[in-house]
Amino acid sequence: MVPLPNYRPKQLSLGPLEAEILNIVWELGSATVKDVHDRILADPDRELAYTSVTTVLRRLTQKGWLACDKQERSFSWQPLISREEAQAIKAHEQLHQFLAVGNPDVVAAFADSLDSASVEQIEAIALRLQSARKAREEGK
Fold first, then answer.
1. pLDDT for 89-133, tens place per residue?
2. Which long-range contacts (CB under 8 A, 24 or more apart) does 38-42 make?
3. Contact 75, 30 (CB under 8 A)
4. Which sign does the torsion angle of CA 108, 110, 116, 118 carry?
């Protein structure tokens, strides 16, 4: 289980190209503009300007997803959080939005629409929540 990281990007929403480039950087661990550009252009049906990749990498840095490191005459970007940590943050945000509805009828309607696999997942989550609550109470 990946814990919720202390660090959070300034802006969670990403456009499709930003998400694609972030995924490439996660796969590579560290990447230059050329690394990302070459990876995108490996698909013969894709076209993307080198400068567009630079712009998106800078935007991801401004949003707090990547850090930029200048090494001699080239720049390299590294993710500030892992893909798993990003998933935990997004799940946490979605759960808070869902709970903000606050209407028991809406939650009940949602629960009624679940298939058996989803119900099993929710039951597993409930067990983890009970375990976490118990551990928290014992730690007091």
1. 998 898 888 878 777 788 778 777 877 777 788 888 888 888 888
2. none
3. no
4. negative
Question: What is the number of other CB atoms lying within 10 angstroms of the CB of residue 113?
Answer: 8
CA–CA gap between residue 55 and residue 65 (Å, rounded): 14
- Give CA–CA dist 131/5, Å, rounded: 20
How much is the pLDDT for 140? 66
The reply to whether the predicted model has a pTM over 0.70 is yes
Choose among 71, 72, 59, 73: nearest CA to 25: 59
Q: Is 78 helix (H, G, I), strand (E, B) or coil?
A: strand
Residues present in the chain in total: 140
